[in-house]
Design goal:
By secondary structure, the chain is an alpha/beta fold. The chain folds into three domains: 5-39 and 98-174 and 267-336, FAD/NAD(P)-binding domain (3-Layer(bba) Sandwich), CATH 3.50.50; 46-95 and 176-265, D-Amino Acid Oxidase, subunit A, domain 2 (D-Amino Acid Oxidase, Chain A, domain 2), CATH 3.30.9.10; 351-405, no CATH class. Helix content is 35%, strand content 25%. The protein is built from twelve helices and 19 strands. The chain has helices spanning 12-23, 49-54, 97-110, 164-168, 204-207, 233-242, 296-316, 321-350, 354-366, 369-376, 383-391, 393-402, and strands spanning 5-8, 28-31, 46-48, 65-70, 72-76, 82-86, 92-95, 114-116, 120-127, 132-138, 149-152, 154-157, 179-188, 197-201, 212-216, 222-228, 255-265, 274-275, 278-280. Strands 6-5-14-15-16-13-17 form a seven-stranded mixed beta sheet. The longest helix has 30 residues, at 321-350. The protein is globular and about 65 Å long. The termini are far apart. The protein binds flavin-adenine dinucleotide. The site of flavin-adenine dinucleotide (FAD) has 39 residues, from helix 1, strand 3, strand 9, strand 13 and strand 17. Flavin-adenine dinucleotide (FAD) is lined by residues 8-14, 31-34, 42-47, 120-121, 158-161, 165, 182, 184, 225, 262-264, 282-283, 288, 293-297, 299.
Protein backbone atom coordinates (compact mmCIF):
# COMPACT_ATOMS: atom_id res chain seq x y z
CA UNK A 1 0.00 0.00 0.00
CA UNK A 2 1.21 3.54 -0.77
CA UNK A 3 0.26 7.03 0.34
CA UNK A 4 1.67 10.57 0.18
CA UNK A 5 2.15 11.03 3.91
CA UNK A 6 2.23 8.37 6.61
CA UNK A 7 1.90 9.43 10.24
CA UNK A 8 2.91 7.11 13.06
CA UNK A 9 0.68 7.58 16.12
CA UNK A 10 -2.82 9.00 16.46
CA UNK A 11 -2.09 10.98 19.62
CA UNK A 12 -2.93 14.68 19.46
CA UNK A 13 0.28 15.56 17.63
CA UNK A 14 -0.18 12.97 14.89
CA UNK A 15 -3.81 13.88 14.30
CA UNK A 16 -3.08 17.62 14.27
CA UNK A 17 -0.40 16.96 11.63
CA UNK A 18 -2.88 14.80 9.72
CA UNK A 19 -5.59 17.51 9.78
CA UNK A 20 -3.16 20.09 8.43
CA UNK A 21 -1.75 17.87 5.67
CA UNK A 22 -5.18 16.57 4.57
CA UNK A 23 -6.59 20.07 4.40
CA UNK A 24 -3.72 20.85 2.03
CA UNK A 25 -4.99 18.02 -0.22
CA UNK A 26 -2.31 15.43 0.52
CA UNK A 27 -3.27 11.77 0.89
CA UNK A 28 -2.64 10.91 4.53
CA UNK A 29 -2.67 7.60 6.42
CA UNK A 30 -2.24 7.57 10.19
CA UNK A 31 -1.07 4.30 11.76
CA UNK A 32 -2.15 3.74 15.36
CA UNK A 33 -1.18 0.69 17.37
CA UNK A 34 -4.11 0.93 19.78
CA UNK A 35 -7.53 -0.49 19.02
CA UNK A 36 -9.25 2.53 20.55
CA UNK A 37 -7.74 5.96 20.18
CA UNK A 38 -6.87 7.70 23.44
CA UNK A 39 -7.28 4.55 25.56
CA UNK A 40 -5.69 4.24 28.04
CA UNK A 41 -5.46 7.90 28.95
CA UNK A 42 -2.26 9.11 30.66
CA UNK A 43 -2.75 12.82 30.94
CA UNK A 44 -4.16 15.45 33.32
CA UNK A 45 -5.71 17.29 30.40
CA UNK A 46 -4.95 20.82 31.57
CA UNK A 47 -4.61 22.91 28.42
CA UNK A 48 -4.34 26.67 28.11
CA UNK A 49 -7.17 28.51 26.42
CA UNK A 50 -4.76 30.61 24.36
CA UNK A 51 -2.85 27.49 23.35
CA UNK A 52 -6.01 25.78 22.14
CA UNK A 53 -6.71 28.81 19.99
CA UNK A 54 -3.20 28.62 18.54
CA UNK A 55 -3.75 25.02 17.45
CA UNK A 56 -7.10 25.89 15.90
CA UNK A 57 -9.34 24.54 18.67
CA UNK A 58 -11.04 27.73 19.91
CA UNK A 59 -14.20 25.92 20.79
CA UNK A 60 -14.34 22.30 21.93
CA UNK A 61 -17.53 20.25 22.28
CA UNK A 62 -18.92 20.50 25.84
CA UNK A 63 -18.74 16.71 26.25
CA UNK A 64 -14.91 16.81 26.15
CA UNK A 65 -14.46 19.71 28.57
CA UNK A 66 -14.42 18.76 32.25
CA UNK A 67 -13.87 22.31 33.47
CA UNK A 68 -13.62 25.73 31.90
CA UNK A 69 -13.35 27.62 35.15
CA UNK A 70 -9.62 27.65 35.84
CA UNK A 71 -8.45 31.24 36.35
CA UNK A 72 -5.23 30.58 38.25
CA UNK A 73 -3.00 28.43 40.41
CA UNK A 74 -2.32 28.05 44.11
CA UNK A 75 1.29 26.99 44.49
CA UNK A 76 2.57 25.57 47.79
CA UNK A 77 6.07 25.26 49.21
CA UNK A 78 6.98 22.18 51.30
CA UNK A 79 6.13 24.08 54.51
CA UNK A 80 2.72 25.11 53.15
CA UNK A 81 3.47 28.72 52.19
CA UNK A 82 1.06 29.62 49.44
CA UNK A 83 1.60 31.76 46.38
CA UNK A 84 -1.61 32.42 44.48
CA UNK A 85 -1.56 33.57 40.88
CA UNK A 86 -4.78 34.47 39.10
CA UNK A 87 -6.37 36.41 36.30
CA UNK A 88 -9.91 37.67 35.81
CA UNK A 89 -10.93 35.19 33.16
CA UNK A 90 -10.56 31.51 32.25
CA UNK A 91 -6.90 30.64 31.61
CA UNK A 92 -7.07 26.91 31.07
CA UNK A 93 -9.53 24.16 30.28
CA UNK A 94 -9.48 20.68 31.74
CA UNK A 95 -10.31 18.10 29.10
CA UNK A 96 -10.98 14.39 29.11
CA UNK A 97 -7.90 13.30 27.15
CA UNK A 98 -9.48 10.17 25.72
CA UNK A 99 -12.38 12.17 24.29
CA UNK A 100 -10.03 14.95 23.21
CA UNK A 101 -7.83 12.53 21.25
CA UNK A 102 -10.91 10.90 19.71
CA UNK A 103 -12.31 14.30 18.75
CA UNK A 104 -9.06 15.16 16.95
CA UNK A 105 -9.02 11.75 15.24
CA UNK A 106 -12.55 12.32 13.91
CA UNK A 107 -11.53 15.78 12.75
CA UNK A 108 -8.58 14.23 10.90
CA UNK A 109 -10.85 11.66 9.26
CA UNK A 110 -13.34 14.38 8.32
CA UNK A 111 -10.49 16.30 6.71
CA UNK A 112 -9.77 13.27 4.49
CA UNK A 113 -7.13 11.34 6.44
CA UNK A 114 -7.44 7.59 6.93
CA UNK A 115 -6.64 6.19 10.37
CA UNK A 116 -5.66 2.53 10.58
CA UNK A 117 -6.21 1.32 14.14
CA UNK A 118 -4.53 -1.83 15.51
CA UNK A 119 -1.62 -1.00 13.26
CA UNK A 120 1.74 -0.97 14.96
CA UNK A 121 4.70 0.17 12.91
CA UNK A 122 7.51 -2.19 13.80
CA UNK A 123 10.17 -1.05 11.42
CA UNK A 124 10.86 1.75 8.96
CA UNK A 125 13.39 1.92 6.16
CA UNK A 126 14.41 4.57 3.63
CA UNK A 127 15.07 3.27 0.12
CA UNK A 128 17.87 5.21 -1.57
CA UNK A 129 16.64 4.33 -5.08
CA UNK A 130 12.94 5.13 -4.74
CA UNK A 131 13.58 7.82 -2.11
CA UNK A 132 10.57 6.48 -0.22
CA UNK A 133 10.12 4.97 3.21
CA UNK A 134 8.58 1.57 3.77
CA UNK A 135 7.07 0.69 7.14
CA UNK A 136 6.28 -2.79 8.40
CA UNK A 137 2.91 -3.00 10.13
CA UNK A 138 1.75 -5.52 12.72
CA UNK A 139 -1.91 -5.99 13.57
CA UNK A 140 -2.06 -7.81 16.93
CA UNK A 141 -5.82 -8.36 16.87
CA UNK A 142 -5.91 -9.47 13.26
CA UNK A 143 -2.56 -11.10 12.45
CA UNK A 144 -3.95 -12.10 9.05
CA UNK A 145 -4.69 -8.46 8.13
CA UNK A 146 -3.69 -7.88 4.49
CA UNK A 147 -2.03 -4.57 5.38
CA UNK A 148 1.52 -5.62 6.19
CA UNK A 149 3.39 -2.58 4.96
CA UNK A 150 2.96 1.00 3.87
CA UNK A 151 5.24 3.05 1.63
CA UNK A 152 5.33 6.84 1.51
CA UNK A 153 7.73 9.59 0.47
CA UNK A 154 7.04 11.37 3.78
CA UNK A 155 6.66 9.93 7.28
CA UNK A 156 5.86 11.97 10.38
CA UNK A 157 6.84 10.10 13.53
CA UNK A 158 4.58 11.17 16.41
CA UNK A 159 4.82 7.96 18.40
CA UNK A 160 4.98 9.56 21.84
CA UNK A 161 7.52 9.53 24.63
CA UNK A 162 9.56 6.39 23.94
CA UNK A 163 10.55 7.44 20.45
CA UNK A 164 11.56 3.86 19.57
CA UNK A 165 11.17 4.18 15.80
CA UNK A 166 12.80 7.61 15.77
CA UNK A 167 15.76 6.14 17.67
CA UNK A 168 15.97 3.17 15.31
CA UNK A 169 16.76 5.53 12.42
CA UNK A 170 19.28 7.70 14.23
CA UNK A 171 17.22 10.42 15.96
CA UNK A 172 17.77 11.14 19.64
CA UNK A 173 14.47 11.12 21.54
CA UNK A 174 14.41 12.11 25.25
CA UNK A 175 16.57 9.81 27.36
CA UNK A 176 15.07 7.70 30.14
CA UNK A 177 16.47 10.04 32.82
CA UNK A 178 14.34 12.88 31.39
CA UNK A 179 11.13 10.82 31.48
CA UNK A 180 9.71 10.92 35.01
CA UNK A 181 7.21 8.37 36.29
CA UNK A 182 3.84 10.01 36.66
CA UNK A 183 0.72 8.71 38.35
CA UNK A 184 -2.72 10.21 38.75
CA UNK A 185 -6.07 9.43 40.37
CA UNK A 186 -9.47 10.79 39.53
CA UNK A 187 -10.97 11.25 42.98
CA UNK A 188 -14.44 12.02 44.28
CA UNK A 189 -15.27 13.51 47.70
CA UNK A 190 -12.23 15.77 47.91
CA UNK A 191 -12.95 18.56 50.36
CA UNK A 192 -12.10 22.29 50.15
CA UNK A 193 -11.71 22.38 46.38
CA UNK A 194 -11.76 25.76 44.72
CA UNK A 195 -13.01 25.03 41.22
CA UNK A 196 -11.23 28.09 39.80
CA UNK A 197 -7.72 27.07 40.84
CA UNK A 198 -5.34 24.26 40.12
CA UNK A 199 -3.06 23.46 43.06
CA UNK A 200 0.64 22.65 42.80
CA UNK A 201 2.72 21.27 45.67
CA UNK A 202 6.51 21.29 45.71
CA UNK A 203 8.23 18.73 47.95
CA UNK A 204 11.36 16.72 47.24
CA UNK A 205 10.03 13.78 49.24
CA UNK A 206 6.67 13.56 47.47
CA UNK A 207 7.58 14.58 43.93
CA UNK A 208 11.29 15.06 43.49
CA UNK A 209 12.12 16.84 40.21
CA UNK A 210 8.50 17.85 39.63
CA UNK A 211 5.39 18.68 41.71
CA UNK A 212 2.08 17.23 42.80
CA UNK A 213 -1.11 18.60 41.29
CA UNK A 214 -4.76 18.85 42.23
CA UNK A 215 -6.89 19.79 39.25
CA UNK A 216 -10.54 20.33 40.17
CA UNK A 217 -13.21 19.30 37.72
CA UNK A 218 -16.17 19.94 40.05
CA UNK A 219 -16.88 21.07 43.62
CA UNK A 220 -15.75 17.72 45.01
CA UNK A 221 -13.98 15.86 42.19
CA UNK A 222 -10.37 16.34 41.12
CA UNK A 223 -7.50 14.81 39.24
CA UNK A 224 -4.72 14.37 41.77
CA UNK A 225 -1.35 13.28 40.50
CA UNK A 226 2.38 13.68 40.53
CA UNK A 227 5.57 12.88 38.71
CA UNK A 228 8.83 12.04 40.42
CA UNK A 229 12.47 11.21 39.73
CA UNK A 230 12.02 8.36 42.20
CA UNK A 231 10.59 5.10 40.94
CA UNK A 232 7.64 4.68 43.31
CA UNK A 233 5.18 7.30 42.06
CA UNK A 234 2.17 5.33 43.36
CA UNK A 235 3.58 5.07 46.88
CA UNK A 236 4.31 8.79 46.93
CA UNK A 237 0.88 9.72 45.63
CA UNK A 238 -0.75 7.54 48.30
CA UNK A 239 1.46 9.22 50.88
CA UNK A 240 0.29 12.61 49.62
CA UNK A 241 -3.34 11.56 50.04
CA UNK A 242 -3.01 9.89 53.42
CA UNK A 243 -0.09 11.48 55.23
CA UNK A 244 0.97 14.80 53.69
CA UNK A 245 0.38 17.28 56.53
CA UNK A 246 -0.92 20.13 54.36
CA UNK A 247 -3.51 18.13 52.44
CA UNK A 248 -4.31 14.79 54.11
CA UNK A 249 -7.49 16.10 55.84
CA UNK A 250 -9.00 16.80 52.42
CA UNK A 251 -8.90 13.17 51.31
CA UNK A 252 -10.47 11.49 54.36
CA UNK A 253 -13.60 10.52 52.42
CA UNK A 254 -11.84 10.23 49.08
CA UNK A 255 -13.08 7.68 46.60
CA UNK A 256 -10.67 6.82 43.79
CA UNK A 257 -12.63 6.29 40.59
CA UNK A 258 -9.86 6.05 38.02
CA UNK A 259 -6.10 5.48 37.99
CA UNK A 260 -3.67 6.47 35.26
CA UNK A 261 0.07 6.28 34.89
CA UNK A 262 2.50 7.63 32.35
CA UNK A 263 5.83 9.29 31.81
CA UNK A 264 6.24 13.05 31.95
CA UNK A 265 9.02 14.49 29.79
CA UNK A 266 11.00 17.23 31.50
CA UNK A 267 13.99 17.64 29.18
CA UNK A 268 15.63 16.22 26.08
CA UNK A 269 14.41 18.52 23.33
CA UNK A 270 15.57 16.92 20.08
CA UNK A 271 18.06 19.07 18.16
CA UNK A 272 17.60 17.61 14.68
CA UNK A 273 14.03 16.55 13.92
CA UNK A 274 14.11 15.84 10.19
CA UNK A 275 16.03 13.84 7.65
CA UNK A 276 15.34 12.44 4.16
CA UNK A 277 11.59 11.75 4.11
CA UNK A 278 11.11 11.83 7.88
CA UNK A 279 10.07 14.37 10.53
CA UNK A 280 9.66 13.73 14.27
CA UNK A 281 7.11 15.67 16.36
CA UNK A 282 5.57 15.81 19.84
CA UNK A 283 6.79 13.86 22.88
CA UNK A 284 9.02 11.74 20.63
CA UNK A 285 10.96 14.94 19.85
CA UNK A 286 10.88 16.15 23.48
CA UNK A 287 8.73 19.13 22.52
CA UNK A 288 7.24 19.49 26.01
CA UNK A 289 7.46 22.16 28.67
CA UNK A 290 10.18 21.17 31.15
CA UNK A 291 8.47 23.12 33.92
CA UNK A 292 5.12 21.30 33.77
CA UNK A 293 5.59 18.40 31.33
CA UNK A 294 2.70 19.73 29.23
CA UNK A 295 3.10 18.85 25.58
CA UNK A 296 -0.26 19.11 23.87
CA UNK A 297 0.14 22.72 22.75
CA UNK A 298 3.90 22.87 22.18
CA UNK A 299 3.97 19.49 20.40
CA UNK A 300 0.72 20.39 18.66
CA UNK A 301 2.21 23.54 17.16
CA UNK A 302 5.16 21.50 15.89
CA UNK A 303 2.82 18.80 14.57
CA UNK A 304 0.85 21.37 12.57
CA UNK A 305 4.09 22.69 11.08
CA UNK A 306 5.17 19.13 10.23
CA UNK A 307 1.82 18.57 8.46
CA UNK A 308 2.22 21.84 6.57
CA UNK A 309 5.82 21.11 5.46
CA UNK A 310 4.88 17.52 4.55
CA UNK A 311 2.07 18.62 2.23
CA UNK A 312 4.32 21.27 0.67
CA UNK A 313 6.97 18.61 0.10
CA UNK A 314 4.38 16.49 -1.73
CA UNK A 315 3.30 19.44 -3.86
CA UNK A 316 6.92 20.23 -4.76
CA UNK A 317 7.84 16.57 -5.12
CA UNK A 318 10.79 17.10 -2.81
CA UNK A 319 11.25 15.04 0.35
CA UNK A 320 14.98 15.73 0.73
CA UNK A 321 16.41 16.44 4.15
CA UNK A 322 17.27 19.93 2.88
CA UNK A 323 13.61 20.63 2.08
CA UNK A 324 12.24 19.08 5.28
CA UNK A 325 14.64 21.19 7.32
CA UNK A 326 11.96 23.87 6.92
CA UNK A 327 10.16 21.97 9.67
CA UNK A 328 13.11 22.30 12.07
CA UNK A 329 13.54 25.96 11.23
CA UNK A 330 9.86 26.82 11.67
CA UNK A 331 9.17 25.02 14.95
CA UNK A 332 12.43 26.26 16.43
CA UNK A 333 11.49 29.85 15.51
CA UNK A 334 8.39 29.70 17.69
CA UNK A 335 9.30 27.14 20.36
CA UNK A 336 13.02 26.70 20.87
CA UNK A 337 13.78 29.73 23.07
CA UNK A 338 10.63 29.13 25.09
CA UNK A 339 11.43 25.47 25.70
CA UNK A 340 15.09 26.22 26.47
CA UNK A 341 14.13 28.85 29.09
CA UNK A 342 11.80 26.31 30.73
CA UNK A 343 14.60 23.72 30.73
CA UNK A 344 16.89 26.19 32.44
CA UNK A 345 14.24 26.86 35.09
CA UNK A 346 13.66 23.12 35.58
CA UNK A 347 17.42 22.67 35.99
CA UNK A 348 17.39 25.25 38.79
CA UNK A 349 14.27 23.79 40.46
CA UNK A 350 15.83 20.32 40.37
CA UNK A 351 18.74 21.55 42.45
CA UNK A 352 16.69 23.14 45.21
CA UNK A 353 16.28 21.52 48.61
CA UNK A 354 12.95 21.76 50.42
CA UNK A 355 14.49 24.45 52.62
CA UNK A 356 15.44 26.41 49.48
CA UNK A 357 11.87 26.07 48.19
CA UNK A 358 10.52 27.38 51.50
CA UNK A 359 12.82 30.41 51.39
CA UNK A 360 12.00 31.06 47.72
CA UNK A 361 8.25 30.99 48.40
CA UNK A 362 8.70 33.34 51.40
CA UNK A 363 10.58 35.77 49.18
CA UNK A 364 7.97 35.47 46.44
CA UNK A 365 5.13 36.24 48.86
CA UNK A 366 6.98 39.09 50.64
CA UNK A 367 7.89 40.74 47.34
CA UNK A 368 4.53 40.16 45.69
CA UNK A 369 6.11 38.18 42.85
CA UNK A 370 2.69 36.66 42.19
CA UNK A 371 1.73 40.01 40.64
CA UNK A 372 4.72 39.82 38.28
CA UNK A 373 3.64 36.32 37.26
CA UNK A 374 0.07 37.54 36.75
CA UNK A 375 1.31 40.34 34.50
CA UNK A 376 3.90 38.49 32.44
CA UNK A 377 3.14 34.79 32.86
CA UNK A 378 1.84 32.67 30.01
CA UNK A 379 1.11 28.97 30.46
CA UNK A 380 2.83 27.95 27.21
CA UNK A 381 5.31 30.77 26.62
CA UNK A 382 7.13 31.03 29.92
CA UNK A 383 10.47 32.51 28.78
CA UNK A 384 9.48 36.11 29.51
CA UNK A 385 8.34 35.46 33.07
CA UNK A 386 11.30 33.19 33.81
CA UNK A 387 13.75 35.87 32.67
CA UNK A 388 11.84 38.59 34.58
CA UNK A 389 11.93 36.49 37.75
CA UNK A 390 15.63 35.71 37.38
CA UNK A 391 16.36 39.43 36.96
CA UNK A 392 14.21 40.52 39.91
CA UNK A 393 16.43 42.09 42.63
CA UNK A 394 14.66 40.08 45.39
CA UNK A 395 15.34 36.83 43.52
CA UNK A 396 18.98 37.73 42.88
CA UNK A 397 19.45 38.52 46.59
CA UNK A 398 17.79 35.23 47.50
CA UNK A 399 19.93 33.31 44.99
CA UNK A 400 23.09 34.50 46.74
CA UNK A 401 21.70 33.43 50.10
CA UNK A 402 20.63 30.05 48.78
CA UNK A 403 23.78 29.30 46.84
CA UNK A 404 25.35 27.20 49.65
CA UNK A 405 22.19 25.04 49.89
CA UNK A 406 21.82 24.37 46.16
CA UNK A 407 22.70 20.77 45.25
CA UNK A 408 24.98 20.91 42.20
C1 LIG B 1 0.64 11.98 33.97
C2 LIG B 1 0.71 12.93 32.79
C3 LIG B 1 0.01 14.14 32.84
C4 LIG B 1 0.07 15.02 31.75
N1 LIG B 1 -0.65 16.18 31.82
C5 LIG B 1 -0.63 17.04 30.78
C6 LIG B 1 -1.43 18.21 30.80
O1 LIG B 1 -2.17 18.46 31.76
N2 LIG B 1 -1.37 19.05 29.72
C7 LIG B 1 -0.56 18.79 28.64
O2 LIG B 1 -0.52 19.60 27.70
N3 LIG B 1 0.20 17.67 28.59
C8 LIG B 1 0.17 16.79 29.62
N4 LIG B 1 0.92 15.64 29.57
C9 LIG B 1 1.77 15.41 28.38
C10 LIG B 1 0.92 14.97 27.19
O3 LIG B 1 0.15 13.85 27.55
C11 LIG B 1 1.83 14.66 25.99
O4 LIG B 1 2.70 15.75 25.78
C12 LIG B 1 1.02 14.40 24.71
O5 LIG B 1 0.17 13.32 24.87
C13 LIG B 1 1.99 14.15 23.55
O6 LIG B 1 1.26 13.78 22.42
P1 LIG B 1 1.93 12.82 21.31
O7 LIG B 1 0.91 12.74 20.22
O8 LIG B 1 3.30 13.27 21.02
O9 LIG B 1 2.09 11.41 22.04
P2 LIG B 1 0.99 10.43 22.60
O10 LIG B 1 -0.16 11.17 23.13
O11 LIG B 1 1.73 9.52 23.51
O12 LIG B 1 0.51 9.63 21.32
C14 LIG B 1 1.36 8.74 20.64
C15 LIG B 1 0.52 7.72 19.92
O13 LIG B 1 1.34 6.92 19.11
C16 LIG B 1 0.94 5.56 19.21
N5 LIG B 1 2.11 4.74 18.87
C17 LIG B 1 3.27 4.63 19.55
N6 LIG B 1 4.13 3.81 18.91
C18 LIG B 1 3.48 3.39 17.79
C19 LIG B 1 3.84 2.53 16.74
N7 LIG B 1 5.06 1.94 16.69
N8 LIG B 1 2.95 2.30 15.76
C20 LIG B 1 1.72 2.87 15.78
N9 LIG B 1 1.32 3.70 16.77
C21 LIG B 1 2.20 3.98 17.76
C22 LIG B 1 0.50 5.44 20.66
O14 LIG B 1 -0.37 4.34 20.83
C23 LIG B 1 -0.21 6.78 20.88
O15 LIG B 1 -1.58 6.72 20.54
C24 LIG B 1 0.87 14.72 30.62
C25 LIG B 1 1.56 13.51 30.57
C26 LIG B 1 1.47 12.62 31.64
C27 LIG B 1 2.20 11.31 31.56
Amino acid sequence: METDIAIVGAGPIGTLAAIQASRNKAEVIVLEQRATIGVPDHCAGLISKTGLKKIGLDSLPKSIVQSEKIIGAKIYSPDGTNLTVKRNSTQALVVDRTLFDQYLATKAENSGATILRNSKVTNLQYNNNTKKITMKIKNKLQPSSPIKSLTAPIVIISEGRLGRLAKSIGFQPPKKKYRLSGFQYLIENVSDLDTQFVEMYFSNFISSGFFTWIIPISENTAKVGLATRDKDAVFRLNYFLKKYPITKHRFQKAKIIKKYGGEVIVSGLMKKTSTNGVMVAGDAAGQTKATTGGGVITGGLAGIIAGQVASLAIQKNNNSSKFLKKYDTQWKAILRNQLKAMSLFRWLLNRMTDEAFNRAFETAVENDLGKLIEEKGDIDSQAEIILSLLKDPAVIKLAFKLLPTIQF
